[in-house]
Hints:
Number of helices: 11
CATH topology of the largest domain: Rossmann fold
Structural class: alpha/beta
Order of helices and strands: HEHEEHEHHEHEEHEEHEEHEHHEE
Largest sheet: 7 strands, parallel
Strand content: 15-25%
CATH class of the largest domain: Alpha Beta
Number of strands: 14
Distance between the termini: 37 Å
CATH superfamily of the largest domain: NAD(P)-binding Rossmann-like Domain
Amino acid sequence: xxxxxxxxxxxxxxxxxxxxxxxxxxxxxxxxxxxxxxxxxxxxxxxxxxxxxxxxxxxxxxxxxxxxxxxxxxxxxxxxxxxxxxxxxxxxxxxxxxxxxxxxxxxxxxxxxxxxxxxxxxxxxxxxxxxxxxxxxxxxxxxxxxxxxxxxxxxxxxxxxxxxxxxxxxxxxxxxxxxxxxxxxxxxxxxxxxxxxxxxxxxxxxxxxxxxxxxxxxxxxxxxxxxxxxxxxxxxxxxxxxxxxxxxxxxxxxxxxxxxxxxxxxxxxxxxxxxxxxxxxxxxxxxxxxxxxxxxxxxxxxxxxxxxxxxxxxxxxxxxxxxxxxxxxxxxxxxxxxxxxx
Length: 342
């Protein structure tokens, strides 16, 4: 769906975005603001950053927890649209804090959706899931009928939320859509995902980098494309009750990704496989079938991987990067490169 059509549908609308100060969330909020929507962001700022949405027109930031029923009930009132993105997203954390992941990702989703149902004002709710619920590809590209065989506690907590959203949609005739984005990347980083991990190592070394499973493949989609698809789900007529993938349709091996990024930076790269970075039950392949998104949302990605990586590297090289530590005693094995200053 074009930006012009989205602006036509969403201008002067009232949208609540949970997790809207995060990586993907802040891009969703930026686009909604540019369309003339009035946006309320609910975020506990455990990893999101207020400055990512500060200064945007018609945007209000409320600091709060999606598991806090009182705050959610108060905030959701008078909003026509809801995009629920608030979650604990970093997979290695879920190995050590499974209870917190289920509290935020599953119970938090139940709280937000139930209060939205009771408010009787929400015309459309979009729940943001993840491609990780599929587990490693049994066939490619992976459509929405692909088996769901999650391979991390994070993915299980998100799949439980998906199922709850779908049944609440059916039980209460609540207009909900489930969006499953594949690997998004771009500016406004909040977590040490693989793209910023490689970028920071390349920028702070002579080209010798240490990675985990470099043979695994992921479907990388630039953040502005992913956000546009999420927003389109708010207004697409035939999307209600559907689960829809958002991805580029191109699977890239991690080692290939590193070589592309090094080439953009004009560096030679030597990759060392670091056994401490290997995940215990890793997903080998994620590759998106995005035909349903094209059919229902009139959406397709516009930014090629190389262009998106160039934009991302330019942003990282000019920005002071720091990642917050939401948990005390963060497992150091999985968390490196806490900051970067150009």
